[in-house]
Structure formats: C-alpha cells, structure tokens
Amino acid sequence: MKPRVLFLCTHNSARSQMAEGLLRALGGDRFEVASAGTEARGVNPLAVRVMAESGVDIGGHTSKTLDRFLGEPWHDVITVCDGANEACPVFPGARTRLHWSFEDPSAAGGTEAERLAVFRRVRDEIRARLESWLAGTDARDPAPASPCLDARSLVEGVDGSDEGVAALFERVRDVPFSFTPHQDADTLLAVGSGTCGPKHALLGRLYNQLGRETRFVYVTFRFEEMPGEFPADLRPLVHDGIVRSHAALQLRRGDRWIDVDATFDRPLAAAGFVVNEGWDGRTSMPLVVRPLTRIESALTPEHEETLLGIRHRTGLSRAVVERVNAWLDGLRRATSRRR
C-alpha cells in the first residue's frame, strides 16, 4: 500500500494545493496525495498560474474541507499554515503529524506582478521543503502504522497472574513513545503513540480491568540527567536545564506497592534509554529517569505538573518535537532492519 499524504491549510486555496501538486510531480507514483482546508474557498487562480510555470497542472484541483478525510488512514498529515495547525483535529489513522509554516500568498497585496512574485517564492519554498522531506523518506518503511490501538487486543489472553501482568506490561511498553500533547489513554488509543503520561494511564486502566489496584508515580527530572543519548544536533535543544515531570505507575502486590515504568519501547534501548525488559510481574523496576522529587497519587497524568508544583513552561517547541520524533522513528526503522 502506498503511503498516503494529506496537506492542510486554512482555505485549501493556495499552499496546500501547491504542496499536493508538487508532491505528485516530485514523488511520482510513490504516494497517494490529497489536500484540504478548515474551510473551502476555491483554488486561487494565481496558484494555478505559477504552478503551470513550473510544469505542474493543478487546474483540475478542487477545494475541499478536511472533515471528509477524518475517517481515513493517513501516513502523514502535514499542515502548511499556522491557522490550520492550530485548528487541526486528531487524525486517528495518521502515523506522522508535521507542521510546515509558509506565508499565505493569497494575502499578498500590490500589483499582480508583485502578488505573483509572492506566489512564486512560496511555491519554491514548498518545493525545497518537499525535496528535503523526500530525501528522508527513501529509507522509511512505507507501510502505514495501525490506524489505532485496540484495548481489547492488548488484554487478550492475559490474566491477573504474575505472567499475565508482565505480558500486559510488555504490550503497552512497546506502544511507540513520542512527544505528543495528549495525556489521556483514549487519545493514545486513537493516535497510536504517546509520552509516559498516556501510556501509564492506559496501563493502569488495563490492570484495573484485570482486578489489580494501581496508582501513579510522579517525579521531577531534567533531560540532561537521565540515561539515554540524544544525537549531537538535538542535545543542546533538549538539554535545556528545565525541570520537567515524568509519570509512571505503581501496582499493589499484597501489602506493598511496586514501581512500573513502561515509557520507552524496546527499539529505543539502542540510544541508551532505560527499557525495562524481562520483568517478573511482582518486583519493582527502575524508573527511566533520575528523580529529583517524587509523589504518588490516584490522580491521572493530566494533573501531574500541578501535583509536583511545576508552574513554568516545560514543553519543547513544535520544531524540536518534530525533529526528536523523527529521530525516534529512525531508531525504530534501524532496529527493524537488523531483525
């Protein structure tokens, strides 16, 4: 199955239309491509004109709204304007969500010649970005990820025994870790990847279904003090000295609580991250970060920063998140090729 790529902008009038046409031209028959907008206002004639100058015909394109595509599986959903990025809903079937910010050429003023110059510049910027992106997709596994996770399949065949508890842990642990804004289990199931918070919210829910009592562990940490090696170009962007929060789980075993940390999936061990393997289902395992402070709570991960007293901004920028997630996916691809 070909990778399916969806470009989004506000009006599906210029930027996303040009991106759709350019990817069809540059990628040949490697991709299925579409574009849409949060609104549909028709294809801008100047976009058609400058694309024709570069040998790409988008005269037959129509303007569409994104809601018609929400139920479909997409390998990549790429927003090409800031407005669409802010308004973009969750696409449950999307393996990768990217944001490329380009100026809106439709908003350009001046004479027709001046406006055409803006359209040409944005067209060329989109082409350059696509050429760079295509160079990085050559080694990528073209098979789309599963459109969602199925909670029933995660618990299938397991019970509350030590072996069942350990088996369920491994299934949730190997849900891909990625930097995403959601903290709840339902969105994790829809998106198919997430951070420590939603992974442990899901694991706790599934353990509860097996009759096991759980609560959450919240700790503060710094990226530069945790095990794991980010590549040299990412290290200064991530090792910023900011105190952040980390969520894990505790499972009651008799009269004691044991720590369970399913944050990092198995392929990330290649970068030195702590991946807990070979667990017996009854003893505490190490946390994947080095804690500065720690609390336990029944409150879900949406509350972790408040519980830890964190009031400052802790999120990485969108650009850094995209680069880190791409690197994590590269680790997974490299591990898959070695198998």
General description of the model:
With 339 residues, the chain is an alpha/beta fold. It folds into two domains: 4-137, Rossmann fold, CATH 3.40.50; 151-338, Roll (C8orf32 fold), CATH 3.10.620. It is 36% helix and 14% strand. The chain is built from eleven helices and eight strands. It has helices spanning 15-27, 45-53, 82-87, 112-137, 151-155, 162-173, 185-191, 196-209, 235-238, 304-307, 318-338, and strands at residues 4-9, 32-37, 76-79, 96-99, 214-221, 244-253, 256-260, 294-297. The strands form two sheets. The chain has a four-stranded parallel β-sheet with strand order 2-1-3-4. The protein has a four-stranded antiparallel β-sheet with strand order 7-6-5-8. Strand 3, helix 3 and strand 4 form a beta-alpha-beta unit. Helix 1 (15-27) crosses helix 4 (112-137). The two termini are 22 Å apart. The model is unreliable at 138-147 (pLDDT under 50).
Write the layout of secondary structure elements.
Elements: E1 4-9, H1 15-27, E2 32-37, H2 45-53, E3 76-79, H3 82-87, E4 96-99, H4 112-137, H5 151-155, H6 162-173, H7 185-191, H8 196-209, E5 214-221, H9 235-238, E6 244-253, E7 256-260, E8 294-297, H10 304-307, H11 318-338
Parallel strand pairs: 1-2, 1-3, 3-4
Antiparallel strand pairs: 5-6, 5-8, 6-7
Oligomer description? single chain
Write down the Rg. 23 Å
Tally of discrete structural domains: 2
CATH class of the largest domain: Alpha Beta
What level of helicity do the residues show?
25-40%
Largest sheet: 4 strands, parallel
Number of beta-strand segments: 8
Number of helices: 11
Q: Which structural class fits the helix and strand makeup?
A: alpha/beta
Uncertain segments of ≥5 residues (pLDDT<50)?
138-147
Sketch the topology as an H/E string, one letter per element: EHEHEHEHHHHHEHEEEHH
Strand order of the largest sheet: 2-1-3-4
Q: What does the average pLDDT come to? A: 88
| N/C terminus separation | 22 Å
